[in-house]
Amino acid sequence: xxxxxxxxxxxxxxxxxxxxxxxxxxxxxxxxxxxxxxxxxxxxxxxxxxxxxxxxxxxxxxxxxxxxxxxxxxxxxxxxxxxxxxxxxxxxxxxxxxxxxxxxxxxxxxxxxxxxxxxxxxxxxxxxxxxxxxxxxxxxxxxxxxxxxxxxxxxxxxxxxxxxxxxxxxxxxxxxxxxxxxxxxxxxxxx
Length: 191
Ligand SMILES: NC(=O)c1ccc[n+]([C@@H]2O[C@H](COP(=O)([O-])OP(=O)(O)OC[C@H]3O[C@@H](n4cnc5c(N)ncnc54)[C@H](OP(=O)(O)O)[C@@H]3O)[C@@H](O)[C@H]2O)c1
Hints:
InterPro entries: DHFR-like_dom_sf, RibDG_C, Riboflavin_Biosynth_HTPR. This is Dihydrofolate reductase family protein. By secondary structure, this protein is of the alpha/beta class. It has a single domain, classed as 3-Layer(aba) Sandwich (Dihydrofolate Reductase, subunit A), CATH 3.40.430.10. The protein is 21% helix and 29% strand. The chain contains five helices and ten strands. It has helices at 33-39, 46-52, 68-76, 108-117, 129-135; strands at 4-10, 15-17, 61-67, 87-91, 102-105, 122-127, 141-146, 155-156, 168-175, 181-187. The strands form two sheets. It has an eight-stranded mixed beta sheet with strand order 5-4-3-6-1-7-10-9. β3 (61-67), α3 (68-76) and β4 form a beta-alpha-beta unit. The mean pLDDT is 96. The structure holds NADP nicotinamide-adenine-dinucleotide phosphate (NAP). The site of NADP nicotinamide-adenine-dinucleotide phosphate (NAP) has 27 residues, from β1, β2, β3, α3 and β6.
């Protein structure tokens, strides 16, 4: 048994990307980067590991699940398998020609439930918003890199899910000089 962890950068007002899907507004540099590079290095893409000269630790996650729109920025720059150190699952409702290292699923909710039954490290829900909305009932932990910026509009952290309150308990908050706050929550298991 392992947990599904939605680890994501988010604006003050709950957006994970700008309206065009960009995320340049999020802070890359600053003292919060210690969390990104030390605790969550498994969630860095291979080209980042190469640039940093580090090996993926494989101590936090061994699997990533993402929506098709989250994979496409990597495809657009010629990266067919952004997280080769992880088992990569990509949700799509369409037949897609993908790298052999990627497993496609048209039923990510069933896939997430199945993955959680397996032994292993936790499963990282990378995003985006639409997929996170689908997987919300199965999310065990939220790790939010709350950036000190208001977007006004963009892609919401859970896409366009209908109003249906779900309880999470705050388990940790860390504030950084950069203004980023890392918020951690655990699901309380229902509405
Ligand atoms: N801030 C961060 O840390 C962070 C992290 C990750 C992503 N993002 C950003 O989030 C944006 C993408 O978010 P998004 O909400 O537009 O898209 P998304 O959730 O990444 O992908 C949506 C696509 O995934 C597939 N999909 C989603 N739910 C599905 C389901 N229930 N069943 C089958 N397939 C499903 C569909 O693909 P098909 O169209 O192929 O059917 C759908 O069009 C990107 O701009 C990305 O940069 C930000």
